[in-house]
Amino acid sequence: MKNDRLFEIFNGHPLVNNQGGGGMPGLEEMWDVILSSGKLLYGLATDDAHDFKRPGDPTAAGPGRGWIVVRAPRLAAREVLGALERGDFYASTGVELKDVQRSPSRLVVEIKTDRWSRYTTRFIGRDGKVLAESTENPARYDIKGDEGYVRAVVLESNGKRAWVQPVMLGGEGRGSGTR
């Protein structure tokens, strides 16, 4: 994975075991192992769509189960690819974010809320350790500097999620992945 920059942390195909189990790690756990080694990889959510003829069928590999949202000044290949290279995007299975602010000193996540849902933001660091949890909006984490990396995942009460790209605090990614 020498030149890789992107890692699939959610695959929406109904037969994929995203959470792991039976002694096998889940995709998010694998991401934390890689990040903990000092390798900066940005997380993707994909729908892995193969079936477009059975909309709404939970057993079909249909579209719309996982995607990314990039921050780009316009919808053009150069801007979208630049955002992917910088980690200026988030991955989602349905949670919408209003804003993300990443810097070496702070990670702030603002959620576009749905009135019927409740949200928890978890800030995660080295070895997948939960550094803090917040139900505030926006959620903030002040980086201490010894976490290895800090990323966030937003959990919606209906099971949907959004993953915010990591701020790397050492190793290959030092100074990378910030906005």
Provide a compact summary of the structure:
This protein is mostly beta strands and 179 residues long. It has helices at residues 27-36, 77-86, and strands at residues 6-11, 42-46, 67-70, 89-92, 96-102, 106-112, 119-125, 129-134, 139-142, 149-156, 161-168. Strand 1, helix 1 (27-36) and strand 2 (42-46) form a beta-alpha-beta unit.
Computed Rg: 16 Å
Quaternary state reads single chain
Parts with pLDDT < 50 across at least 5 consecutive residues: 172-179
Structural class: mainly beta
Strand fraction: 35-45%
One letter per element, helices H and strands E, the order comes to EHEEHEEEEEEEE
Please estimate the helix content: 10-25%
How many beta-strand elements?
11
The total tally of domains equals: 1
Question: Outline, from the CA principal axes?
Answer: globular
- From the N-terminal CA to the C-terminal CA, the straight-line distance is 24 Å
- Overall mean pLDDT: 90
Largest sheet: 6 strands, antiparallel
Strand numbers in spatial order across the main sheet: 3-4-11-10-7-8
Number of helices: 2
Keywords:
single chain, 6-stranded antiparallel β-sheet, mainly beta
What does this structure look like?
- About 10% of the residues lie in helices and about 35% in strands.
- It is built from two helices and eleven strands, in the order βαββαββββββββ.
- It has one domain.
- By secondary structure, it is mostly beta strands.
